[in-house]
Design goal:
By secondary structure, the chain is mostly helical. The protein contains 22 helices and 2 strands. A hairpin with a 4-residue loop joins strand 1 and strand 2.
Length: 479
């Protein structure tokens, strides 16, 4: 059999993003300093082209590359989320890179190449392809985590990320090997057929789950998250907390929705992991005085909420999980973008005390950050509220009353540390050093990201119908 035009067309978003990423890397050494300002725009163009291509591929759904890739409504939804996230991260990162005197070309190339790996994970119809996408994504993000090479904390975070990520990848790959030994195939749609050893299949799927649990930062595989998120450059943290997590959830959802033995085997693992992840994330966030680290623990807690939907295991629950991923990406991108702007040169201003009195000095910035925090909390009329509402409803309809009650309790726990930041911004007086700090104006790229994420947070809370419909179509792909 030969490859056809349809094979390449159904992988077009990844081809375009990879091409632009490679072009950025090739051009950077040969461009003069004054011409390197064009590299960020080439990176943004690559992500935008991938987004357009994802829309075009939607009308040509089907398998590609001998059923290694599946271009369907589910792939379309995740591609939109991943490449839109990469686009916004690159727009916001330009001012940060200039402020920290970091080279732009390598950064934009790595973001694009990392998003290619995430796109492959979202489209993977068999486990080895998912592993290849996971490795492409991981290698890029390992380097990005240490992009501030002169910062010891960044190098420390990258080393932790690399070592623990390597162990997680080993679990995943060994799980794939056991699944192949049990079934003779790694194609998801065939895993439930002809298994020669049920025990071997269960063990393999368990190891696959452990490998993916690391990537979504679910407890007890979350220990890397706070240190890596805190030490990495904040634009990289914005990326790590959204797109790679969405790609890992994509693999989990596709396996759970396609492989019936996995759905049954993973139920109690998902139930226990969801409960533990929510409590670990929220309880640890309660005692944080560093805003960036607090948001890192918050990211762990939100992975737990999404796991509630996976434990429910219904088509409605999968659609709720996808909607939650979209809402979560908007909130976290916006929050980390503002943290990067407020942190100042060298990211020295990250504590709660640094946010005291912010509403008086920068009322618009404080109001925007409050919107993201209230949405993460689940305030009505925001995307975060409907995300939790849909997940809780799906959990109740799947008769997971105990897990939904635990999720509701954790929402109350989260209220404390989200509202505490708002309290500092609006009702605390700044200390003498912070009162005289000269604030820089919001850069244009950062402003675009803040407008897009804030508007998206409100629109998804007020008019969720369109995104929810796309999520429902994506979840229906598993029928």
């Amino acid at each position: 059999m030969l490859l056809t035009v349809h094979d390449y067309a159904r992988l077009l978003p990844e081809i375009l993003a990879a091409g632009c990423g490679i072009l950025v890397m090739l051009l950077e050494p040969f461009l003069r300093r004054e011409h390197k300002a064009a590299l960020p725009w080439l990176g943004v163009l690559g992500a935008a082209a991938a987004l357009v291509a994802a829309g075009l591929v939607r009308s040509d759904a089907g398998p590609a590359f001998f059923h290694l890739i599946q271009a369907d409504a589910f792939t379309f939804f995740l591609r939109l989320l991943i490449y839109a996230t990469a686009l916004l991260v690159m727009l916001a990162a330009r001012a940060y890179l200039d402020r920290e005197h970091l080279p732009p070309g390598e950064f934009y190339a790595l973001v694009l190449l990392g998003s290619v790996g995430m796109g492959v994970m979202a489209a993977a119809a068999e486990l080895v392809t998912a592993f290849i996408g996971l490795e492409i994504s991981s290698l890029s993000t390992y380097i990005l985590a240490s992009y501030r090479r002169d910062a010891p904390r960044a190098n420390e975070s990258a080393l932790k990320y690399f070592l623990l990520g390597s162990f997680a990848t080993t679990f995943f790959l060994y799980g794939v090997a056991l699944v192949y030994g049990a079934t003779g195939t790694t194609r998801l749609e065939q895993l439930a057929e002809g298994a020669t050893s049920v025990l071997l299949l269960k063990l393999g799927l368990a190891l696959v789950f452990i490998g993916l649990a690391f990537k979504i930062a679910s407890a007890p595989f979350h220990v890397w998250t706070p240190d890596v998120y805190e030490g990495a450059p904040t634009p990289v943290t914005a990326l790590l907390s959204t797109a790679p997590k969405a790609a890992a959830f994509a693999v989990l959802l596709r396996i759970a929705g396609t492989v019936l033995p996995a759905t049954r085997l993973w139920f109690w693992a998902l139930w226990a992991s969801a409960a533990l992840t929510m409590f670990v994330g929220n309880l640890a966030a309660l005692v944080q005085s560093n805003v960036k680290r607090m948001l890192a623990y918050s990211s762990i807690a939100h992975a737990g909420y999404i796991l509630v939907a996976l434990a429910a295991g219904t088509e409605e629950a999968y659609a709720a999980a996808l909607y939650y991923l979209a809402a979560y990406a908007l909130m976290k991108l916006g929050a980390f973008t503002l943290v990067a702007h407020l942190a100042g040169r060298g990211e020295r201003r990250l504590t709660l005390e640094n946010y005291a009195g912010l509403a008086r000095r920068e009322p618009v910035v404080a109001a925007t950050l409050s919107l993201y925090l209230l949405s993460l909390l689940g305030l009505p009329l925001t995307a975060g509220f409907l995300g939790k509402f849909y997940v809780f409803v799906a959990g109740l309809r799947a008769e997971l009353l105990g897990l939904v009650v635990l999720a509701a309790v954790n929402t109350l726990l989260g209220a404390y540390y989200y509202l505490r930041v708002i309290l500092y911004m609006y009702f605390r007086e700044p200390d003498a050093t912070d009162a005289h700090v000269v604030r820089e104006p919001v850069p244009a790229g950062t402003g675009v990201v803040l407008v897009a994420t804030a508007a998206g947070t409100l629109l998804l809370g007020l008019f969720p119908g369109h995104i929810l419909h796309i999520a429902e179509l994506a979840a229906a792909s598993f029928r």
